[in-house]
Amino acid sequence: MRRALAMFLLAATVSPAASSSRQLRLAVVQLSPGPSLQANLERMLEWIGEASRQRARVVVFPEAALHATGRTVDHDLQAATEAIQRSAQRHQLYVLYGGLHWSGRRQKETNWMKVISPAGAELLHYDKLWEIRDAPAPELFQIDGIPAGAILCADRWLRGLEDLPVQRGAQILFELSNNFAVEWVPELQWYWYVPRALRNSVWVVFANSGNRIPGQPEPWSKDGPRHGHSAVIAPDGSLAAAAHDDGEQLLVADIEVSRASRAEALARRQHPVVGRFWRAGLEQLLNTSSSTPMLAQKDCPNTELTVATAQIAETSQPDRNALALAERIAEASRRGADLIVFGELTLTAGRAISSEKVLPLLCQAAKAGRITVVFGMPWQQDGKWRNSAFVLGPDGSLLTRYDQMVASRPFDSGRQPASMWFEVRGVPAVVTIGKEVLWNEFAELAAVAGARLLIHLARQPVPDRAAHLRRRQTGAAFASYGTLTVMANAAGYSAIWEDLNASEETRSVLQKLPRPEFGPALIFSPFSANLVAEAGQGPSLILARRRIPGRNDHYPRRTARFHPSMAAWYVRGASILMGQPAQ
To answer: Is 201 in contact with 435 (CB distance < 8 Å)?
Structure first.
């Protein structure tokens, strides 16, 4: 019966709702929470009225908007909830808001979220999993027939809330947050939300707390100012509306829901390899009592690694490009690198190459420099062309050849995830190519399996500042799973990211301690990966040295620990990526 229900869920959520072709007006309130339950309620009711005057159909408040300071009695909290329900009914709009109160049963403050319909009915109550780990994941809810999903702040780390709702049919993802000011990194901007929209092809609505006086916390605040910057992000990653500061304000955006095709999400579910992970996730939602199989995680020694990436000026002669690679390999070796990475299809120049001539040259260069080398090159096998990454060991041997699994014409997709894996001085590493940077489940599941080093090969044009920012945003999202990440782009702006000491960096910010020193960084981001080094356009070689701590603790620290009912799903995904059955 459970299997039949799972199959029904899969079949029932493939097509968007028929009503989704309509335009929907959203109002996002960047609220600064007040000193008491009554003060917060009064201001929320005022903003609901203003959203109605702006002809919004949906009004969205941030996490903890209905903040009940102190040990508020349940009667007062219920009365406030009923007042919001009456206001939603009076103004005929949907109200999404976060609440915070002291739970006598749990003996701590807890965050939660509610969705109220225009009829005044409660469509959703969702307890934040980051605080209540045995709480159920939020169900989908509908706004005029449009499926939507909800995320509360740090629950964005949980892929069952971040992406599974779209697999079930959601066309809009709402995140309600109360982010610290230090979580806003100007050089990265909306680095969680733009990649989320792109990899799912849906609308993303981010409602965050602000400050009545920009840059200054309220007198009663214990945690300092919030960063604001609420936004409505389109399925193509563009901003439909955004607050460009932290001041309290109202954003209004008209969204065409039919643009949320879910195309990328469906492509992931239908993929012959990765799709097994997503289908397992949908089934796991209905089978939360299942046992968790043992995870055969790869071990990692404590190791100092120097990694490098190089961009070369392409010519129309691939053999000359190979000589240029050999020169850069020798240079990186002289500078102490253990690994050098080149971009996607570095050796092609638009034509087929003689691997019999190129591979021996590069194998010899790797052996001479005693350095691991990764580069991209097309490869033909059984009459089919593959977009491949070649990994050469410091002894000149071919460690692995990975054929891109998310490929497009003229290339056929690979089917061997185990070929992604190799080691650099005993450190488990994974290589991905091209569009796979947006399918960042590759990065997370590799981390769950024990990877500490991620390599990504790209060939992505970066024509302007907007494209450069987009590349940084996707890089930050891809690199934030406890790894050292090298992103080599043949078209420029290659980068090295580091997220090896996330716990210490976050703790230093939350406890107002001095920033820990793990090495220089161009961009320090305590709640995501740090950008360690970045190339410009044209020929360039960049290096970074980092100490790789032992085992990657992303699993269970930011996975099963906060969403234990989905632990088996993470293990299943890691096993798929390692090309082995879960044990």
So the answer is: no
